[in-house]
């Protein structure tokens, strides 16, 4: 196929998407058709280094051969039984996930938002049954600028006008405090508070890292006041920040941890609620479920995804390459850049407002073979697969340098 014909096919696909699809995303106009490791190719055959990893769902790299093998093998044997019956993949999935994370109980779900919803339901019930909170009075403390998904209850406690606008009436029972402010959290606690729910690093808000000691103080507060600490590690978890879970950077352990995204290495939606404090023990048959949650295909894929993450040293690689990437980005002399920040391979370059928005720089990066995404107008988020090598980081840095310094290499 000629380059021209491929371009027309790409334009045609974009046209069809616009005509038939709900307009709920504003993607870069690149139509991807293949991925391998850190690389992606579009329908015209152009190659790009992926600096988004599907919002950290592809930590293990695109189409990891061992996850693919597990998926194909399981798909040819058994894909779905529903939880009306048992399947032979669920128990080993539980065992391996519990061993990896130190959890005592696991609730398998599909999307990240479902894991968040499931945690909210469970801690409310725990509050009534274990803590004796009066019926329908349970409160959960959340943080401003959070991102936990798109369902009604979850957007009910979003502070983003785009996420909420026009979607009311909202689910009650949430109190919002500033992220990173433990004193504000303490002041918001009432006798009806059953849980706090927060991201260890706010991803969608632009990779916002709380002050040192914040998570430790939140942990202390939760312990002192008998409140469940829920950490949403759907984006930060599974190696992204250079540790298995981001909570480890502060040496804390949440009571309930939410994971998703990279739990399947990007092959399939798999999420889980992990509980260290028997909170999940309040659920009884008939009170919660999901047709696809815990299905054998999901479990087999997740088992392989966890295995390669550990066996292939991806978590350590995220720490090493992430520190180097961040240091080198910070060394780029550009008057567009306000701040470079991040942890592991969860990085962000925040531009000055005068730079005119991050989108144009993402377009420029795309033209040079890097796919990165703007977030909140002025921030370029950088989150490549955790398999990235030093040479590939250097390759990316040359392009970031060119775009941020306006040089034309
Ligand atoms: C921290 C966090 N929680 C929850 C979600 C929602 O996950 P999903 O899109 O799979 O519903 C996301 C997705 O970006 C996230 O980053």
From TrEMBL:
Q: Which residues carry this modification: N6-(pyridoxal phosphate)lysine?
A: 261
EC number, UniProt record: 2.6.1.13
Q: What is its main location?
A: cytoplasm
What keywords were assigned to this record? Answer: Amino-acid biosynthesis, Aminotransferase, Cytoplasm, Proline biosynthesis, Pyridoxal phosphate, Transferase
**What positions belong to coiled-coil segments?**
none
Please give one Gene Ontology molecular function term for this protein: ornithine aminotransferase activity
Q: Does the keyword Cytoplasm apply?
A: yes
InterPro entries in the record, alphabetically?
Aminotrans_3, Aminotrans_3_PPA_site, Class-III_PLP-dep_AT, Orn_aminotrans, Ornith_aminotrans_bact, PyrdxlP-dep_Trfase, PyrdxlP-dep_Trfase_major, PyrdxlP-dep_Trfase_small
PROSITE patterns listed in its UniProt record: AA_TRANSFER_CLASS_3
Subcellular localization(s) per the UniProt record: Cytoplasm
Name its pathway.
Amino-acid biosynthesis; L-proline biosynthesis; L-glutamate 5-semialdehyde from L-ornithine: step 1/1
Record-linked Pfam families: Aminotran_3
Q: Which cofactor does it need?
A: pyridoxal 5'-phosphate
Q: Which reaction does it catalyse?
A: a 2-oxocarboxylate + L-ornithine = L-glutamate 5-semialdehyde + an L-alpha-amino acid
Q: What does this protein's UniProt record list under function? A: Catalyzes the interconversion of ornithine to glutamate semialdehyde.
Similarity comment: family membership: Belongs to the class-III pyridoxal-phosphate-dependent aminotransferase family. OAT subfamily.
HAMAP family, from UniProt? Ornith_aminotrans_3
| Protein name per the record | Ornithine aminotransferase
Q: Which organism is it from?
A: Azospirillum rugosum
